[in-house]
Amino acid sequence: MFFSLLRIIQYRGPLLRPKGKQNILMMKLALHWQIAIGMTLGALIGISLNIYGGTRTTIVQVDELPAAITSLEIHDSSNHIRIDWTTASGDKRSAIVDGTRKTPGAAATVDELRHTQPEAAAWFHQFGRSTARVVGETSQLIGNLFLRLLQMVAVPLIITSLICGITGLGDAASLGGMFLRTILYYICTSAAAITIGLVAVNIFRPGITENAAPAVQVVETAGQSLGTLLFEQVERMIPTNPIAAIANSHFLSIISFTLAFSIFAVIVGGKTLKAVRAAAEAGFEVMMAMTMAIIALAPIGVLCLMLFVTATQGPAVFASLFWYLLTVVAALLTHALIVLPLILRFVARRDPIAYAKALSPALLTAFSSASSNGTLPLTMACVENRAGVDNRISSFVLPLGATINMDGTALYEAVAVLFIGQLYYGAVLPLEQQLIVAITALLASIGAAGIPHAGLVMMIVILQAVGLPIEMQGIILAVDRVLDMFRTSVNVWSDSCGCAVVAALEQRSSKNRSVKTT
Ligand code: ASP
């Protein structure tokens, strides 16, 4: 935590650091270790609080009672809160919060109780919260500040990152067939990755525990037809007012408009393209620095959010995280070790093992840095010098891929959101909702920047699309870093395979052209 603050100082320039004494503390502990420590500390404090201070029964003294009631008794334990009171006219009333959603008529969360029975919620807040809940809710406030920071940078980061990627392609003439082939590859492999993710999350069902109750709320949305739901997404892709879309963080609208804007900037070309690219690059650089500074706060954010989750829900929450981790990793490995090698073998006609060996320095760097952008120079060097792919292809496919082709991220987003959905509703989301998740995950992965934890920022898009509370990200935040390492390697691996595929397709089409002309 202390290290996070030190890291931010880095962004104020070297003057703050005495020459020669390069922040030894920071160099010793990499960010992922800080996050791991934050996570463990948060979990340990939270679990201890939950065990030793998670239950409380309060009988409010007569002289403290609000005027309208004559008795008030509150019982608070992890997933269950009960508030009983007697009104001045002698009526006995009660309010219940049941996190497992097993009690009919009970609120699922304290937040829900605030809407349904605000008075009871206020009494609970004033008199009845357990020590674990008081500490947990206070630390949630701090954790939410971290989430707000991530939300703050999301829109400008997506816009500048996308414009940089697309306008980096050069003049309109060079787009042509290569662009189409590349985009086709990106879409096909991302769709395959998402499908694997969906299948895995439906088979493993990591968010469904034995105690889960039926999905009362999901069924309500299932009433809408699939056509209507999908058409709504298409409508969102055509914002009537792009500025309003930016102001209201309508991510789908923002991504589609930015894509169109960048493509037309390339078509217009010349000075205009140069100006647009220069502005976007400058903006992206600043946004990257801001994002990295915010990500440096992740250990504190993770600690607070972990503490909140474990203090208020107890150790049981980890049981489902294990299956969640397993599901994501199994799905990522299936994509990276089966699907992409098959494409390499049969479309690019390359030996997947030799190709992977050639790319290993880039893949390992991607794993440890969790940043496809950071790894890009190394990926280019490996693809060109070790795997022998034409520079013309790699200089086009790789930078664009680092920005918009993220199979690992797309898969991860789909699994994570469906996992959150399973936890939230206690059931698998209906097919319509899963399709929305799939489509938005594809778009979100296109919009994600190639930096650590970018997928986490973009997940907000998908959570919004299916109406899930973004605070529930807190649950998976704890294991995000380790999953980020896996998904970033898959992202880089897919971009690299894309180079071989596009190169092979280019070669074949130019052979065909020359056969036709002779
Ligand atoms: N870290 C990933 C990348 O750089 C993006 C993500 O967070 O999913 O490719």
Strand content: 5-15%
The helix content is over 70%
In order across it, which strands form the biggest sheet? 1-2-3-4
Look at the structure and give the mean pLDDT: 81
Key features of this structure:
518 residues, mainly alpha, Proton glutamate symport protein, 2 domains, 4-stranded antiparallel sheet, 22 helices, 4 strands, 5% strand, disordered N terminus, binds aspartic acid
Describe the structure.
- α7 (176-204) packs antiparallel against α22.
- By secondary structure, the chain is mainly alpha-helical.
- Residues 1-27 and 212-226 have low confidence and may be disordered.
- It contains 22 helices and 4 strands.
- It has helices at 2-10, 24-28, 31-53, 110-116, 118-128, 131-167, 176-204, 216-222, 226-236, 242-247, 251-268, 270-295, 298-313, 317-346, 352-369, 372-386, 391-404, 407-425, 431-447, 454-465, 473-477, 480-517, and strands spanning 56-59, 69-77, 80-87, 92-98.
- It has a 4-stranded antiparallel β-sheet with strand order 1-2-3-4, with helices on one face.
- The site of aspartic acid has 16 residues, from α20 and α22.
- Aspartic acid binds next to α20 and α22.
